[in-house]
Write a structure and sequence with these properties.
Layout (H helix, E strand, L loop, with lengths): L2 H23 L6 H8 L3 H5 L5 H25 L4 H16 L4 H9 L1 H27 L8 H17 L1 H6 L3 H16 L13
InterPro entries: Homeodomain-like_sf (IPR009057), HTH-type_TetR-like_transc_reg (IPR050109), HTH_TetR (IPR001647), Tet_transcr_reg_TetR-rel_C_sf (IPR036271)
GO molecular function, one term: transcription cis-regulatory region binding
Protein name: TetR family transcriptional regulator
């Protein structure tokens, strides 16, 4: 295997380990020395991910959302029904957020560069919902609604989830909140002429 491929493989393995640790325990409390001790690796192995702890955190957070988005889109692509695609998308977002601890989200909110990555992904998700609603309305599997309004409303709720406002108001964590958002959106957009069992993805 060429050296650049070995480097990429080692980096991806390290990113995977960092994702698992940060999701479970957050990242603010760890120094580079702590991480090296936890993974029983050299500091140079960690610096292969990025040249500083702050950049390592951003790279790991970006990797988390990127790999999650790839899994979500793979699930969406498995259905040809735009209504089911919308349900799958929203519910898959909730599933991808499930492993993330409250400590991870608190650290994310407190660290600007990582929080920017989260906001970028939230904005992308809102646009994706708008696109799926537009497709569903166009082919008649969703009620005729103003897709841009739905996208904007979903973006506002996603932003409130991201800021912690929903958790403060309801006690729901991010994954739970996204599941309730999915239920709200799909119930409100379902074509009442369709049988109930056809309105949601299984």
């Amino acid at each position: 295997m060429p050296s650049h491929e070995r480097f990429r493989t080692r980096r991806e393995k390290m990113l995977g380990q960092l994702r698992e640790l940060f999701l479970a325990e957050g990242f603010a409390s760890f120094s580079i020395g702590d991480l090296a001790e936890r993974f029983r690796c050299s500091r140079s192995t960690l610096y292969a991910v990025a040249p500083s702890k702050e950049q390592i955190v951003v790279a790991t957070v970006r990797s988390y959302f990127k790999t999650g988005a790839e899994r979500i889109e793979a699930r969406v692509a498995a259905s040809a029904d735009p209504a089911q695609q919308l349900a799958i998308y929203l519910e898959s977002v909730a599933s991808e957020l499930q492993p993330a601890s409250a400590t991870f989200f608190a650290d994310l909110a407190d660290f600007g560069p990582a929080n920017e990555v989260y906001q970028e992904n939230t904005q992308y998700a809102a646009r994706r919902v708008q696109d799926l609603v537009t497709q569903g309305v166009k082919v008649g599997v969703l009620r005729p609604v103003h897709a841009s309004f739905v996208g904007a409303a979903v973006a506002e709720v996603m932003g409130s989830i991201q800021r912690g406002a929903i958790q403060e108001a309801t006690g729901l964590d991010s994954a739970q909140a996204y599941r309730h958002l999915a239920d709200l959106v799909m119930t409100s957009l379902a074509d009442p002429k369709k049988p109930a069992h056809e309105r949601r993805a299984t």
